[in-house]
Amino acid sequence: MAVAATDDVTESRLLLAEYDRLKEEQKTRIGFRDNLLYFTLAAVTGILAIAVQSEQDQLLLAVPVVCLVLGWTYLVNDEKISAVGCYVRDRLGPRLAELSGARGAVFGWETYHRDDARRPTRKRLQAAVDLFTYVALPMICVIAFWCSPAVQPLLVTVSLAQTLALAVLGRQFLRYAER
């Protein structure tokens, strides 16, 4: 019986199974990534509400921490989403086309949607939203902290480290936006 089961296994079937799993992973990551944006905005709003109500300006330094962790998670997921698409376009599709003898691209959507004339504008706008959410917004909180009476040498040091980390995150967002 085991021999009969392996007779049904072909390279094409394995590649199609891989495609199905990759697209499922991509779909899951897209949902998770998109929800991170909403979660980040909710978390920042909550922190700001608590800081204002309690009049504890040092709580503003929690915003960069949240944005760094969630921003990095967002960025990693976004990169994996793009990597799946690249792999399907550059490796999986051509291999299946070769095996099947297909004329033209297999999985045409993987390249078709990238040829949209408005794509560069959408990418730039998304980069602006990402940079505002994960870099500018926490920097506004750092600057507000610097202007507050809660400034203490240790917290200033923490805020400078956060500023450096936010600059690194911002650079990574710009690098990935170039793709």
Please provide a written account of the structure.
With 179 residues, the chain is mainly α. It is built from 6 helices and no strands. The protein has helices spanning 2-7, 11-54, 62-100, 109-112, 119-146, 153-177. Helix 2 (11-54) packs antiparallel against helix 3 (62-100). The relative contact order is 0.13. The mean pLDDT is 90.
Structural class: mainly alpha
Integer-rounded radius of gyration: 23 Å
**Secondary structure tally: strands:** 0
Let me know the average pLDDT. Answer: 90
N-to-C SSE series?
Answer: HHHHHH
Proportion of helical residues: over 70%
Estimated share of beta-strand residues = under 5%
Shape: elongated
Euclidean distance between termini CA atoms: 48 Å
- Which stretches of 5+ consecutive residues score pLDDT under 50? none
What does the main sheet amount to? none
Number of helical segments?
6
